[in-house]
């Protein structure tokens, strides 16, 4: 079964486009008139001002795409049903770490488009996130098994790598989105929208959540992380990678 057919139910409720990241993605796409969104999911960061060809392996995710979104074809990144250099840009947002063969998938991005735009993250930075370090350390092994943003940038021969900090009021429920709002992780719906939590041993997650609830009730979390409360944004390791392999 495709991963997100199993864990993606209700995904669109917790994962909503944040306009600040959307602006960065649009800037990276530049003048591209046609875009292939690979691992498109519910279409959170698809531009609405140009032609988009969406590719997504999970039928559960495709069903959650809004009526206004571009139609999606069910296929995997490693075997894209798109002709060589058929689009101006290939977009992949927080998806490469789920691919079975990420290098093959990146080769496909290079095959179909002269410009590649990939939003990924520094996996080691995620292991240093307070939720992992203090509550569910089992997540670290999963994160370190995934390709990191640096690996992806090297494989693509990136032209640029831009840090995308996470604002405190971020609207897209990525795993570290609630770095300053820890009580959000007590919500099962929030946890279901985070693949790192959905793929970790439920017993370990339950244990960590119990400990987090206790620390919030006692004030220990607030005391331990008082410096975070003063920040408007935090670098969770997210990186926007752009690469150009030729001109159409």
- Rg measurement, Å: 18 Å
Helix content: 25-40%
* Percent strand: 15-25%
Largest sheet: 7 strands, mixed
- What is the overall silhouette? elongated
The average pLDDT is: 91
* Structure class: alpha/beta
Instruction: Please report the total strand number as a whole number.
Output: 9
Strand order of the largest sheet: 3-2-1-4-5-9-6
Topology as H/E string?
Answer: HHHEEHEEHEHHHHEEHHHHHEE
- End-to-end span in angstroms? 37 Å
Q: Name the poorly predicted regions.
A: 1-13
Task: Please give the count of helices.
Answer: 14
Secondary-structure map:
Layout (H helix, E strand, L loop, with lengths): L2 H5 L3 H4 L4 H11 L4 E5 L12 E5 L3 H5 L8 E2 L15 E5 L8 H11 L2 E7 L1 H5 L2 H5 L4 H6 L4 H8 L3 E4 L2 E2 L20 H5 L2 H4 L3 H17 L1 H5 L1 H4 L3 E2 L3 E7 L4
């Amino acid at each position: 079964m495709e991963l997100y057919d199993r864990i993606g139910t209700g995904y669109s409720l917790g994962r909503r486009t944040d306009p600040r990241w959307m602006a960065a993605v649009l800037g990276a796409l530049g003048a591209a008139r046609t875009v292939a969104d690979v691992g498109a999911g519910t279409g959170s960061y698809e531009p609405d001002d140009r032609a988009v060809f969406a590719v997504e392996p999970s039928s559960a995710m495709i069903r959650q795409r809004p009526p206004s979104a571009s139609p999606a074809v069910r296929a995997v990144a490693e075997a894209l049903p798109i002709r060589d250099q058929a689009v101006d840009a290939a977009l992949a947002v927080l998806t490469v770490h789920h691919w079975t063969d990420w290098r093959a998938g990146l080769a496909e991005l290079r095959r179909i488009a002269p410009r590649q735009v990939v939003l990924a993250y520094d996996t080691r930075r995620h292991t240093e996130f307070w939720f992992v370090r203090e509550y569910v350390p089992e997540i670290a092994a999963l994160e370190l098994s995934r390709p990191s943003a640096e690996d992806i940038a090297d494989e693509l021969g990136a032209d640029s790598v831009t840090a995308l900090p996470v604002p405190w009021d971020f609207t897209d429920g990525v795993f570290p989105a609630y770095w300053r709002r820890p009580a959000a992780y007590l919500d099962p719906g929030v946890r279901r929208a985070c693949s790192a939590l959905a793929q970790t041993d439920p017993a370990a997650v339950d244990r960590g959540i119990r400990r987090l609830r206790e620390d919030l009730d006692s004030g220990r979390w607030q005391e331990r992380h008082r410096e975070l409360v003063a920040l408007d944004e935090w670098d969770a390791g997210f990186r926007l990678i752009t690469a150009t392999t030729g001109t159409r």
